[in-house]
Amino acid sequence: MPLSAVVADVATGVVLALRGGGDPYALSRVLPQDDPLAPAAIRVLGADVLAPYALDHRSAPAGADDETVVRQALAAYPPGPDASEVSVWTYRGLIEASRALLPGDPGDADRAWPQVPRAGAAWITTDPWPKLAFRASQLAALAFPGLAPDLADGLAARTDDLARGFVRAVRRRDWLQAAGLGRWLARLPHVPPTLGLDSGLVFVQQMSDGDARVALHVVAARQFYGRGG
Amino acid sequence: MTATADRGAAHAAAATLLDRMVRDSLRWLDGARPHFRLPPDVATGADPNLTLKPLGELAELTHLIRTSHPRADIRAAADGLFTFAWNETREGELFAELVRGEPHATYPLEIYGVFAYAGLRNTAVEAILPTTTGLRSWRVAREDHTRTLSVLDAERRTGLRQHADFDTVLGLTGLGLMAEPWALDRMAVYGITHDVFHLTDWGRERRRVPAALADYLRLWLPSWLDSWLEEQLWDLVGELLAVAACLPSAPYDPVAWQRLAEAQAADGSVPEMGAAPESGDAAEVFKACYHSTLVTAFAGTLARTGLEVSAAAEAGQAQAVAGRTRYKSEEPS
Lengths: 229, 333
What we know:
The complex is a heterodimer of chains A (229) and B (333).
Chain A: H1 3-19, H2 27-30, H3 38-45, H4 64-76, H5 85-101, H6 122-126, H7 129-138, H8 149-156, H9 159-171, H10 175-187, H11 197-207, H12 212-225
Helix pairs in contact in A: 1-3, 1-12, 3-4, 7-9, 7-10, 9-10, 10-11, 10-12, 11-12
Chain B: H1 3-31, H2 33-36, H3 52-68, H4 72-88, H5 93-101, H6 107-117, H7 123-133, H8 145-158, H9 166-170, H10 186-199, H11 211-230, H12 234-246, H13 254-263, H14 282-322
Helix pairs in contact in B: 1-4, 1-13, 1-14, 3-4, 3-6, 3-14, 5-7, 6-8, 8-10, 10-12, 11-12, 12-13, 12-14
Protein backbone atom coordinates (compact mmCIF):
# COMPACT_ATOMS: atom_id res chain seq x y z
CA MET A 1 0.00 0.00 0.00
CA PRO A 2 1.49 3.39 -0.94
CA LEU A 3 2.02 6.00 1.76
CA SER A 4 -0.87 8.13 0.51
CA ALA A 5 -3.25 5.21 1.03
CA VAL A 6 -1.92 4.55 4.53
CA VAL A 7 -2.32 8.24 5.34
CA ALA A 8 -5.88 8.21 3.99
CA ASP A 9 -6.74 5.14 6.11
CA VAL A 10 -5.43 6.73 9.28
CA ALA A 11 -7.17 10.01 8.44
CA THR A 12 -10.42 8.10 7.97
CA GLY A 13 -10.02 6.55 11.41
CA VAL A 14 -9.46 9.99 12.93
CA VAL A 15 -12.50 11.41 11.12
CA LEU A 16 -14.75 8.61 12.34
CA ALA A 17 -13.54 9.11 15.90
CA LEU A 18 -14.03 12.88 15.76
CA ARG A 19 -17.53 12.36 14.41
CA GLY A 20 -18.25 10.00 17.28
CA GLY A 21 -18.84 6.83 15.29
CA GLY A 22 -17.49 3.33 15.90
CA ASP A 23 -15.33 2.07 18.74
CA PRO A 24 -13.46 4.45 21.01
CA TYR A 25 -10.39 5.73 19.19
CA ALA A 26 -6.94 4.30 19.62
CA LEU A 27 -4.17 5.42 17.29
CA SER A 28 -2.44 2.07 17.48
CA ARG A 29 -5.64 0.46 16.21
CA VAL A 30 -6.15 2.68 13.17
CA LEU A 31 -2.53 2.17 12.09
CA PRO A 32 -1.91 -0.82 9.86
CA GLN A 33 -0.21 -3.48 11.98
CA ASP A 34 3.54 -3.78 11.41
CA ASP A 35 3.41 -1.56 8.37
CA PRO A 36 6.81 0.07 7.89
CA LEU A 37 4.99 3.17 6.60
CA ALA A 38 3.13 3.75 9.87
CA PRO A 39 5.68 6.21 11.32
CA ALA A 40 5.71 8.13 8.04
CA ALA A 41 1.92 8.34 8.05
CA ILE A 42 2.04 9.75 11.58
CA ARG A 43 4.62 12.31 10.50
CA VAL A 44 2.44 13.36 7.54
CA LEU A 45 -0.72 13.80 9.61
CA GLY A 46 1.19 15.22 12.57
CA ALA A 47 -0.78 16.30 15.61
CA ASP A 48 -4.01 15.19 13.96
CA VAL A 49 -3.33 11.55 14.77
CA LEU A 50 -3.93 12.53 18.39
CA ALA A 51 -6.91 14.80 17.76
CA PRO A 52 -9.58 12.40 19.08
CA TYR A 53 -7.82 12.30 22.45
CA ALA A 54 -8.63 15.96 22.83
CA LEU A 55 -12.32 15.01 22.87
CA ASP A 56 -12.54 12.93 26.04
CA HIS A 57 -15.68 11.07 25.23
CA ARG A 58 -14.53 10.01 21.74
CA SER A 59 -11.59 7.88 22.77
CA ALA A 60 -10.20 5.52 25.31
CA PRO A 61 -7.29 6.97 27.28
CA ALA A 62 -4.14 6.94 25.15
CA GLY A 63 -1.99 3.96 25.96
CA ALA A 64 1.61 2.88 25.85
CA ASP A 65 1.21 1.47 22.33
CA ASP A 66 0.32 4.89 21.01
CA GLU A 67 3.22 6.45 22.80
CA THR A 68 5.56 3.95 21.21
CA VAL A 69 4.43 4.55 17.63
CA VAL A 70 4.52 8.32 17.98
CA ARG A 71 7.97 8.13 19.53
CA GLN A 72 9.08 6.04 16.52
CA ALA A 73 7.75 8.66 14.13
CA LEU A 74 9.48 11.49 15.96
CA ALA A 75 12.75 9.57 16.00
CA ALA A 76 12.52 8.53 12.34
CA TYR A 77 11.63 11.90 10.82
CA PRO A 78 13.18 14.79 12.70
CA PRO A 79 13.55 17.94 10.62
CA GLY A 80 17.12 18.10 9.29
CA PRO A 81 19.29 21.20 9.21
CA ASP A 82 17.85 22.17 5.81
CA ALA A 83 14.26 21.35 6.69
CA SER A 84 11.55 23.74 5.55
CA GLU A 85 9.87 25.89 8.15
CA VAL A 86 6.67 23.94 7.54
CA SER A 87 8.47 20.72 8.42
CA VAL A 88 9.81 22.19 11.67
CA TRP A 89 6.40 23.54 12.63
CA THR A 90 4.59 20.25 11.99
CA TYR A 91 7.23 18.40 14.01
CA ARG A 92 6.72 20.86 16.85
CA GLY A 93 3.00 20.35 16.62
CA LEU A 94 3.34 16.60 17.00
CA ILE A 95 5.61 17.01 20.05
CA GLU A 96 3.27 19.55 21.65
CA ALA A 97 0.25 17.34 21.08
CA SER A 98 2.11 14.29 22.41
CA ARG A 99 3.04 16.13 25.60
CA ALA A 100 -0.52 17.19 26.10
CA LEU A 101 -2.31 14.00 25.18
CA LEU A 102 0.01 11.01 25.57
CA PRO A 103 1.33 9.58 28.85
CA GLY A 104 5.11 10.19 28.63
CA ASP A 105 7.19 10.83 31.70
CA PRO A 106 9.36 13.92 31.91
CA GLY A 107 11.30 12.37 34.82
CA ASP A 108 12.34 9.35 32.79
CA ALA A 109 14.94 10.15 30.13
CA ASP A 110 13.69 7.31 27.93
CA ARG A 111 10.11 8.46 28.13
CA ALA A 112 10.57 12.23 27.97
CA TRP A 113 9.41 13.89 24.74
CA PRO A 114 12.01 15.57 22.51
CA GLN A 115 12.74 19.27 22.94
CA VAL A 116 10.57 21.49 20.81
CA PRO A 117 12.78 22.81 17.98
CA ARG A 118 12.85 26.50 17.19
CA ALA A 119 10.68 27.31 14.18
CA GLY A 120 11.05 30.41 12.03
CA ALA A 121 8.12 32.81 12.31
CA ALA A 122 9.13 35.79 10.16
CA TRP A 123 7.14 34.41 7.21
CA ILE A 124 3.92 34.84 9.16
CA THR A 125 4.23 38.59 8.84
CA THR A 126 6.23 38.93 5.63
CA ASP A 127 4.87 36.33 3.17
CA PRO A 128 2.64 37.69 0.41
CA TRP A 129 -0.87 36.33 0.93
CA PRO A 130 -0.84 33.45 -1.59
CA LYS A 131 2.36 32.02 -0.11
CA LEU A 132 1.22 32.63 3.44
CA ALA A 133 -2.02 30.81 2.72
CA PHE A 134 -0.22 27.87 1.20
CA ARG A 135 2.08 27.47 4.19
CA ALA A 136 -0.69 27.94 6.73
CA SER A 137 -2.75 25.25 5.03
CA GLN A 138 0.15 22.83 5.37
CA LEU A 139 0.12 23.57 9.10
CA ALA A 140 -3.61 23.00 9.51
CA ALA A 141 -3.01 20.16 11.98
CA LEU A 142 -1.80 22.87 14.36
CA ALA A 143 -5.24 24.50 14.28
CA PHE A 144 -6.02 22.43 17.32
CA PRO A 145 -7.14 23.74 20.71
CA GLY A 146 -4.21 24.98 22.76
CA LEU A 147 -1.56 24.09 20.18
CA ALA A 148 0.92 26.62 18.75
CA PRO A 149 -0.61 29.70 20.36
CA ASP A 150 2.09 31.99 18.97
CA LEU A 151 1.42 30.78 15.44
CA ALA A 152 -2.30 31.31 15.94
CA ASP A 153 -1.68 34.83 17.24
CA GLY A 154 0.50 35.65 14.25
CA LEU A 155 -2.05 34.30 11.79
CA ALA A 156 -4.86 36.14 13.57
CA ALA A 157 -3.34 39.37 12.28
CA ARG A 158 -3.76 38.05 8.74
CA THR A 159 -7.22 36.57 8.63
CA ASP A 160 -8.12 38.63 5.55
CA ASP A 161 -5.14 37.16 3.73
CA LEU A 162 -5.94 33.60 4.79
CA ALA A 163 -9.52 34.17 3.65
CA ARG A 164 -8.22 35.36 0.28
CA GLY A 165 -6.20 32.17 0.16
CA PHE A 166 -9.35 30.15 0.80
CA VAL A 167 -11.02 31.84 -2.18
CA ARG A 168 -7.97 31.20 -4.33
CA ALA A 169 -7.75 27.55 -3.28
CA VAL A 170 -11.42 26.86 -4.03
CA ARG A 171 -11.06 28.54 -7.39
CA ARG A 172 -8.11 26.23 -8.13
CA ARG A 173 -10.09 23.25 -6.85
CA ASP A 174 -7.31 22.61 -4.36
CA TRP A 175 -9.68 21.18 -1.77
CA LEU A 176 -6.99 20.13 0.71
CA GLN A 177 -5.52 23.62 0.82
CA ALA A 178 -8.97 25.17 1.08
CA ALA A 179 -9.98 22.84 3.92
CA GLY A 180 -6.77 23.55 5.81
CA LEU A 181 -7.30 27.28 5.49
CA GLY A 182 -10.94 26.94 6.44
CA ARG A 183 -9.87 25.09 9.57
CA TRP A 184 -7.49 27.90 10.57
CA LEU A 185 -10.17 30.48 9.89
CA ALA A 186 -12.52 28.49 12.13
CA ARG A 187 -10.00 28.95 14.94
CA LEU A 188 -9.25 32.63 14.35
CA PRO A 189 -11.32 35.66 15.36
CA HIS A 190 -12.58 38.35 12.95
CA VAL A 191 -13.03 36.22 9.85
CA PRO A 192 -14.75 38.38 7.19
CA PRO A 193 -18.44 37.43 7.24
CA THR A 194 -18.75 37.79 3.46
CA LEU A 195 -16.38 34.84 3.03
CA GLY A 196 -19.20 32.47 3.98
CA LEU A 197 -16.89 30.17 5.94
CA ASP A 198 -19.54 27.75 7.19
CA SER A 199 -21.02 27.01 3.80
CA GLY A 200 -17.51 27.10 2.33
CA LEU A 201 -16.31 24.28 4.56
CA VAL A 202 -19.32 22.14 3.68
CA PHE A 203 -18.89 22.95 0.00
CA VAL A 204 -15.21 22.01 0.02
CA GLN A 205 -15.88 18.70 1.71
CA GLN A 206 -18.58 17.77 -0.77
CA MET A 207 -16.55 18.84 -3.79
CA SER A 208 -13.56 16.80 -2.61
CA ASP A 209 -15.60 13.63 -3.11
CA GLY A 210 -14.57 11.73 0.00
CA ASP A 211 -10.94 12.83 0.38
CA ALA A 212 -10.17 11.71 3.94
CA ARG A 213 -7.64 14.46 4.66
CA VAL A 214 -10.09 17.13 3.52
CA ALA A 215 -12.77 15.53 5.69
CA LEU A 216 -10.38 15.57 8.64
CA HIS A 217 -9.88 19.34 8.45
CA VAL A 218 -13.58 19.97 8.01
CA VAL A 219 -14.61 17.75 10.91
CA ALA A 220 -11.91 19.33 13.11
CA ALA A 221 -13.28 22.80 12.26
CA ARG A 222 -16.71 21.61 13.36
CA GLN A 223 -15.78 19.64 16.48
CA PHE A 224 -13.19 22.03 17.88
CA TYR A 225 -14.54 25.38 16.72
CA GLY A 226 -18.18 24.84 15.83
CA ARG A 227 -17.79 26.06 12.24
CA GLY A 228 -18.94 24.47 9.03
CA GLY A 229 -22.54 23.60 9.86
CA MET B 1 14.19 58.49 2.00
CA THR B 2 11.10 59.30 4.03
CA ALA B 3 7.87 57.37 3.70
CA THR B 4 6.29 60.40 2.06
CA ALA B 5 9.09 60.61 -0.51
CA ASP B 6 8.78 56.86 -1.16
CA ARG B 7 5.09 57.27 -1.79
CA GLY B 8 5.79 60.20 -4.07
CA ALA B 9 8.25 58.17 -6.16
CA ALA B 10 5.88 55.20 -6.36
CA HIS B 11 3.05 57.51 -7.36
CA ALA B 12 5.14 59.08 -10.14
CA ALA B 13 6.22 55.66 -11.45
CA ALA B 14 2.62 54.44 -11.47
CA ALA B 15 1.44 57.56 -13.28
CA THR B 16 4.13 57.14 -15.94
CA LEU B 17 3.25 53.49 -16.50
CA LEU B 18 -0.49 54.16 -16.65
CA ASP B 19 -0.13 57.08 -19.05
CA ARG B 20 2.03 55.03 -21.39
CA MET B 21 -0.48 52.16 -21.35
CA VAL B 22 -3.46 54.42 -22.00
CA ARG B 23 -1.66 56.34 -24.75
CA ASP B 24 -0.52 53.12 -26.47
CA SER B 25 -4.00 51.62 -26.25
CA LEU B 26 -5.60 54.69 -27.79
CA ARG B 27 -3.04 54.75 -30.57
CA TRP B 28 -3.89 51.16 -31.50
CA LEU B 29 -7.63 51.87 -31.25
CA ASP B 30 -7.19 54.89 -33.48
CA GLY B 31 -5.50 52.71 -36.08
CA ALA B 32 -8.38 50.24 -35.79
CA ARG B 33 -11.02 52.76 -36.92
CA PRO B 34 -11.69 50.85 -40.15
CA HIS B 35 -12.75 47.84 -38.07
CA PHE B 36 -15.04 49.89 -35.84
CA ARG B 37 -16.73 51.34 -38.92
CA LEU B 38 -20.32 50.15 -39.24
CA PRO B 39 -21.27 48.15 -42.34
CA PRO B 40 -24.15 49.39 -44.56
CA ASP B 41 -26.42 46.57 -43.31
CA VAL B 42 -25.88 47.41 -39.63
CA ALA B 43 -29.57 48.00 -38.97
CA THR B 44 -30.79 45.03 -40.94
CA GLY B 45 -28.61 41.96 -41.28
CA ALA B 46 -25.33 42.47 -39.45
CA ASP B 47 -24.54 40.76 -36.13
CA PRO B 48 -24.72 43.55 -33.52
CA ASN B 49 -22.11 41.74 -31.41
CA LEU B 50 -19.56 42.40 -34.12
CA THR B 51 -20.67 45.89 -35.09
CA LEU B 52 -22.63 47.90 -32.53
CA LYS B 53 -21.19 46.28 -29.43
CA PRO B 54 -17.60 47.30 -30.24
CA LEU B 55 -18.74 50.79 -31.29
CA GLY B 56 -20.85 51.20 -28.14
CA GLU B 57 -17.94 50.19 -25.93
CA LEU B 58 -15.68 52.56 -27.81
CA ALA B 59 -18.13 55.40 -27.12
CA GLU B 60 -18.71 54.56 -23.43
CA LEU B 61 -15.06 54.24 -22.54
CA THR B 62 -13.59 57.02 -24.66
CA HIS B 63 -16.22 59.38 -23.25
CA LEU B 64 -14.93 58.66 -19.74
CA ILE B 65 -11.33 59.15 -20.89
CA ARG B 66 -12.00 62.36 -22.84
CA THR B 67 -13.68 63.94 -19.84
CA SER B 68 -11.54 62.75 -16.95
CA HIS B 69 -7.95 62.01 -17.94
CA PRO B 70 -5.54 64.59 -16.51
CA ARG B 71 -3.38 64.69 -19.66
CA ALA B 72 -4.61 66.87 -22.53
CA ASP B 73 -3.05 64.78 -25.34
CA ILE B 74 -4.82 61.67 -24.06
CA ARG B 75 -8.12 63.50 -23.70
CA ALA B 76 -7.76 64.74 -27.28
CA ALA B 77 -7.06 61.24 -28.63
CA ALA B 78 -10.11 59.88 -26.81
CA ASP B 79 -12.23 62.78 -27.99
CA GLY B 80 -11.33 62.03 -31.61
CA LEU B 81 -12.46 58.43 -31.22
CA PHE B 82 -15.67 59.46 -29.46
CA THR B 83 -16.56 61.88 -32.25
CA PHE B 84 -15.75 59.19 -34.78
CA ALA B 85 -18.22 56.85 -33.02
CA TRP B 86 -20.99 59.48 -33.08
CA ASN B 87 -20.36 60.11 -36.74
CA GLU B 88 -20.61 56.38 -37.45
CA THR B 89 -24.14 56.47 -36.04
CA ARG B 90 -24.90 59.29 -38.49
CA GLU B 91 -25.34 61.60 -35.53
CA GLY B 92 -27.82 59.27 -33.96
CA GLU B 93 -30.04 58.60 -37.01
CA LEU B 94 -28.97 54.98 -36.82
CA PHE B 95 -30.64 54.53 -33.41
CA ALA B 96 -34.04 55.49 -34.76
CA GLU B 97 -33.60 52.84 -37.46
CA LEU B 98 -32.49 50.27 -34.90
CA VAL B 99 -35.46 50.97 -32.64
CA ARG B 100 -37.88 50.64 -35.56
CA GLY B 101 -36.19 47.37 -36.50
CA GLU B 102 -36.17 45.94 -32.97
CA PRO B 103 -38.51 48.04 -30.83
CA HIS B 104 -38.18 45.79 -27.78
CA ALA B 105 -34.41 45.42 -27.80
CA THR B 106 -32.50 47.34 -25.15
CA TYR B 107 -29.16 47.81 -26.89
CA PRO B 108 -30.16 50.77 -29.09
CA LEU B 109 -31.13 52.72 -25.96
CA GLU B 110 -28.08 51.54 -24.03
CA ILE B 111 -25.71 52.81 -26.70
CA TYR B 112 -27.69 55.95 -27.48
CA GLY B 113 -27.60 56.73 -23.75
CA VAL B 114 -23.83 57.13 -23.92
CA PHE B 115 -24.14 59.90 -26.50
CA ALA B 116 -27.15 61.50 -24.83
CA TYR B 117 -25.14 61.63 -21.63
CA ALA B 118 -22.47 63.56 -23.51
CA GLY B 119 -25.10 65.98 -24.78
CA LEU B 120 -25.32 64.49 -28.29
CA ARG B 121 -28.95 63.97 -29.09
CA ASN B 122 -31.11 63.07 -32.04
CA THR B 123 -34.69 64.29 -32.29
CA ALA B 124 -36.05 61.23 -34.12
CA VAL B 125 -34.67 58.93 -31.41
CA GLU B 126 -35.97 61.16 -28.65
CA ALA B 127 -39.42 61.03 -30.24
CA ILE B 128 -39.60 57.25 -30.46
CA LEU B 129 -37.99 56.12 -27.19
CA PRO B 130 -40.75 57.22 -24.78
CA THR B 131 -43.16 55.00 -26.70
CA THR B 132 -41.10 51.83 -26.67
CA THR B 133 -39.74 52.25 -23.15
CA GLY B 134 -43.12 53.24 -21.71
CA LEU B 135 -44.74 49.87 -22.40
CA ARG B 136 -45.54 47.42 -19.62
CA SER B 137 -43.57 44.88 -21.61
CA TRP B 138 -40.45 47.02 -21.10
CA ARG B 139 -40.76 46.44 -17.37
CA VAL B 140 -40.86 42.64 -17.55
CA ALA B 141 -37.93 41.37 -15.50
CA ARG B 142 -34.93 40.45 -17.58
CA GLU B 143 -32.90 37.32 -17.00
CA ASP B 144 -29.75 39.26 -16.21
CA HIS B 145 -30.14 41.86 -13.48
CA THR B 146 -26.77 43.37 -14.28
CA ARG B 147 -28.06 44.12 -17.75
CA THR B 148 -31.13 45.73 -16.23
CA LEU B 149 -28.79 48.10 -14.38
CA SER B 150 -27.35 49.04 -17.75
CA VAL B 151 -30.84 49.76 -19.10
CA LEU B 152 -31.68 51.85 -16.02
CA ASP B 153 -28.47 53.83 -16.52
CA ALA B 154 -29.37 54.49 -20.14
CA GLU B 155 -32.85 55.65 -19.15
CA ARG B 156 -31.36 58.05 -16.62
CA ARG B 157 -28.82 59.37 -19.10
CA THR B 158 -31.44 59.86 -21.76
CA GLY B 159 -33.87 61.56 -19.39
CA LEU B 160 -36.47 58.78 -19.51
CA ARG B 161 -38.35 57.58 -16.47
CA GLN B 162 -36.48 54.67 -14.93
CA HIS B 163 -38.60 51.53 -15.30
CA ALA B 164 -37.44 50.00 -11.98
CA ASP B 165 -35.69 51.01 -8.79
CA PHE B 166 -31.92 50.87 -9.23
CA ASP B 167 -31.12 49.80 -5.67
CA THR B 168 -33.73 47.06 -5.73
CA VAL B 169 -32.29 45.61 -8.90
CA LEU B 170 -28.74 45.99 -7.58
CA GLY B 171 -29.83 43.93 -4.58
CA LEU B 172 -30.46 40.98 -6.91
CA THR B 173 -27.01 41.00 -8.50
CA GLY B 174 -23.79 39.28 -7.50
CA LEU B 175 -22.51 42.52 -6.02
CA GLY B 176 -25.72 43.41 -4.22
CA LEU B 177 -25.99 39.93 -2.71
CA MET B 178 -22.28 39.89 -1.92
CA ALA B 179 -22.08 36.37 -3.35
CA GLU B 180 -19.58 34.06 -1.69
CA PRO B 181 -16.29 35.17 -3.23
CA TRP B 182 -15.19 31.58 -3.84
CA ALA B 183 -18.42 30.66 -5.60
CA LEU B 184 -18.02 32.91 -8.65
CA ASP B 185 -17.24 31.65 -12.10
CA ARG B 186 -15.91 33.82 -14.89
CA MET B 187 -19.29 35.12 -15.99
CA ALA B 188 -20.30 35.92 -12.41
CA VAL B 189 -17.11 37.94 -11.91
CA TYR B 190 -17.78 39.82 -15.16
CA GLY B 191 -21.24 40.51 -13.79
CA ILE B 192 -19.85 41.98 -10.57
CA THR B 193 -17.46 44.24 -12.48
CA HIS B 194 -20.38 45.66 -14.44
CA ASP B 195 -22.53 46.01 -11.32
CA VAL B 196 -19.74 48.27 -10.04
CA PHE B 197 -19.49 50.22 -13.30
CA HIS B 198 -23.22 50.91 -13.32
CA LEU B 199 -23.29 51.76 -9.62
CA THR B 200 -20.43 54.25 -9.95
CA ASP B 201 -21.32 55.64 -13.38
CA TRP B 202 -18.19 53.97 -14.80
CA GLY B 203 -15.95 55.18 -11.99
CA ARG B 204 -17.08 58.80 -11.98
CA GLU B 205 -18.84 58.49 -8.62
CA ARG B 206 -16.61 56.47 -6.31
CA ARG B 207 -18.53 57.61 -3.26
CA ARG B 208 -21.65 55.85 -4.47
CA VAL B 209 -20.26 52.51 -3.36
CA PRO B 210 -21.80 51.76 0.05
CA ALA B 211 -19.29 50.89 2.77
CA ALA B 212 -20.30 47.22 2.98
CA LEU B 213 -19.94 46.69 -0.77
CA ALA B 214 -16.64 48.59 -0.86
CA ASP B 215 -15.32 46.39 1.91
CA TYR B 216 -16.48 43.26 0.08
CA LEU B 217 -14.69 44.33 -3.10
CA ARG B 218 -11.53 45.49 -1.28
CA LEU B 219 -11.31 42.12 0.46
CA TRP B 220 -11.84 39.84 -2.52
CA LEU B 221 -10.41 41.69 -5.52
CA PRO B 222 -6.90 40.39 -4.76
CA SER B 223 -8.13 36.78 -4.93
CA TRP B 224 -10.02 37.33 -8.16
CA LEU B 225 -7.10 39.18 -9.73
CA ASP B 226 -4.77 36.35 -8.79
CA SER B 227 -7.03 33.81 -10.49
CA TRP B 228 -7.48 35.70 -13.72
CA LEU B 229 -3.86 36.80 -13.93
CA GLU B 230 -2.95 33.15 -13.74
CA GLU B 231 -5.39 32.37 -16.54
CA GLN B 232 -4.11 35.41 -18.48
CA LEU B 233 -7.62 36.58 -19.15
CA TRP B 234 -6.51 40.13 -19.76
CA ASP B 235 -9.86 41.77 -20.33
CA LEU B 236 -11.12 40.52 -16.98
CA VAL B 237 -7.85 41.53 -15.33
CA GLY B 238 -8.33 45.02 -16.77
CA GLU B 239 -11.95 45.16 -15.60
CA LEU B 240 -10.97 44.07 -12.10
CA LEU B 241 -8.26 46.74 -12.01
CA ALA B 242 -10.89 49.24 -13.12
CA VAL B 243 -13.16 48.06 -10.31
CA ALA B 244 -10.37 48.61 -7.78
CA ALA B 245 -10.04 52.14 -9.10
CA CYS B 246 -13.82 52.64 -8.69
CA LEU B 247 -13.62 52.09 -4.92
CA PRO B 248 -13.70 55.10 -2.64
CA SER B 249 -10.08 54.45 -1.59
CA ALA B 250 -9.00 53.35 -5.13
CA PRO B 251 -6.36 50.79 -4.03
CA TYR B 252 -3.55 50.50 -6.60
CA ASP B 253 -2.01 47.05 -7.22
CA PRO B 254 1.43 47.66 -8.78
CA VAL B 255 2.13 43.96 -9.42
CA ALA B 256 -1.10 43.36 -11.32
CA TRP B 257 -0.63 46.55 -13.35
CA GLN B 258 2.89 45.47 -14.26
CA ARG B 259 1.58 42.11 -15.44
CA LEU B 260 -1.05 43.77 -17.62
CA ALA B 261 1.61 46.14 -18.99
CA GLU B 262 3.68 43.13 -20.00
CA ALA B 263 0.69 41.66 -21.84
CA GLN B 264 0.33 44.82 -23.92
CA ALA B 265 2.11 44.50 -27.28
CA ALA B 266 4.46 47.16 -28.63
CA ASP B 267 1.70 48.35 -30.98
CA GLY B 268 -0.55 49.03 -27.98
CA SER B 269 -2.92 46.10 -28.41
CA VAL B 270 -3.87 43.88 -25.49
CA PRO B 271 -5.05 40.36 -26.34
CA GLU B 272 -8.22 39.10 -24.73
CA MET B 273 -6.47 35.99 -23.50
CA GLY B 274 -2.92 34.64 -23.36
CA ALA B 275 -0.38 35.81 -25.90
CA ALA B 276 -1.05 38.13 -28.83
CA PRO B 277 -2.67 36.36 -31.80
CA GLU B 278 -0.24 35.39 -34.52
CA SER B 279 -2.84 35.60 -37.25
CA GLY B 280 -2.05 37.92 -40.14
CA ASP B 281 -5.77 38.55 -40.59
CA ALA B 282 -6.41 42.09 -39.38
CA ALA B 283 -10.10 41.40 -38.71
CA GLU B 284 -9.17 38.44 -36.50
CA VAL B 285 -6.64 40.52 -34.61
CA PHE B 286 -9.23 43.24 -34.10
CA LYS B 287 -11.75 40.77 -32.74
CA ALA B 288 -9.18 39.29 -30.37
CA CYS B 289 -7.85 42.59 -29.08
CA TYR B 290 -10.31 45.48 -29.32
CA HIS B 291 -12.14 44.79 -26.07
CA SER B 292 -9.09 44.24 -23.85
CA THR B 293 -7.35 47.24 -25.38
CA LEU B 294 -10.34 49.48 -24.66
CA VAL B 295 -10.61 48.12 -21.14
CA THR B 296 -6.91 48.80 -20.58
CA ALA B 297 -7.32 52.43 -21.64
CA PHE B 298 -10.38 52.78 -19.42
CA ALA B 299 -8.86 51.07 -16.37
CA GLY B 300 -5.63 53.02 -16.81
CA THR B 301 -7.57 56.28 -16.81
CA LEU B 302 -9.54 55.39 -13.69
CA ALA B 303 -6.42 54.16 -11.90
CA ARG B 304 -4.66 57.37 -12.89
CA THR B 305 -7.33 59.57 -11.38
CA GLY B 306 -7.50 57.11 -8.48
CA LEU B 307 -3.83 57.66 -7.67
CA GLU B 308 -4.71 61.02 -6.16
CA VAL B 309 -7.49 59.40 -4.14
CA SER B 310 -5.36 56.50 -2.91
CA ALA B 311 -2.49 58.85 -2.04
CA ALA B 312 -4.90 60.92 0.02
CA ALA B 313 -6.30 57.76 1.61
CA GLU B 314 -2.81 56.53 2.52
CA ALA B 315 -1.87 59.88 3.96
CA GLY B 316 -5.15 59.93 5.86
CA GLN B 317 -4.57 56.44 7.21
CA ALA B 318 -1.05 57.39 8.28
CA GLN B 319 -2.54 60.32 10.11
CA ALA B 320 -5.23 58.16 11.64
CA VAL B 321 -2.56 55.73 12.88
CA ALA B 322 -0.71 58.68 14.37
CA GLY B 323 -3.93 59.57 16.10
CA ARG B 324 -4.22 63.11 14.75
CA THR B 325 -7.28 62.85 12.61
CA ARG B 326 -9.70 60.10 11.95
CA TYR B 327 -9.80 59.13 8.31
CA LYS B 328 -13.07 57.64 7.25
CA SER B 329 -12.45 55.57 4.18
CA GLU B 330 -15.04 53.95 1.97
CA GLU B 331 -18.05 55.71 3.34
CA PRO B 332 -20.99 56.43 1.12
CA SER B 333 -21.45 60.03 0.31
